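User: My advisor asked me to double-check a structure prediction for AB hydrolase-1 domain-containing protein before group meeting. I don't want to rely on an old file, so could you generate it fresh from this sequence?
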Amino acid sequence: MAHFMKGLDYNIYVFDGPGQGTALKNGLKLTHNWEKPISTILDYFGIKRASAVGMSLGGYLVMRAAAFEKRLDKVVAFDIFYSFMDSLRVRLPYDKMTKVEQLLAANQKEIINTQFYAMMKQNLDLNWKINKGLENTGTKTPYDLLKEFQKYNIKPILPLINQDVLLLAGENDQYVPSSRLPEIATGLVNASSVKSIMFDKASGGDQHCQAGRRELGFDKIKKFL
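Assistant: Sure, here is a fresh prediction for AB hydrolase-1 domain-containing protein from the sequence you gave:
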């Protein structure tokens, strides 16, 4: 990040929040209400006004923070992240995820755990996602994790965001459907301004967080700031 942000006339604070890096190693588990760690950082350093950039899942977390922490004046979703359930839908058949959500609504813990343990044996990507999620959140079973994941949904908080917002997306993002970009932009009805950028395959920035051409995303961020 330091390499890409070189020359930007900002004081930059980079930190591990709950569920990340050193914070996770020290026992702080992931939380959806990201305004709390952001507010703690701002309070600690006596910061009255700041811009915030959230990367990957941070695309949700930074928007959540902006909804409730008004010392943030500009917000960047690098890239957009609509909901955790989206990330599972991208990799699982639509009808299967629809059934899972119905079972969650009915609190069918045993059935969900049995189904997910079986799927995880056959799907390395799903196995990694679930086990990483268990580690980061401190939950014990796939059912508990999915219940926790349901808290990570950007739709209810979009009207609460009134800052300037930059939304980045890749058309072939392997975790977030690119169709969510206009949906998020439209939902930001009270934002001071909204700028949306979709990177296509020709640009080389079509993957998650512009993997392989990260400088494309950072260039747009620097111009926005």
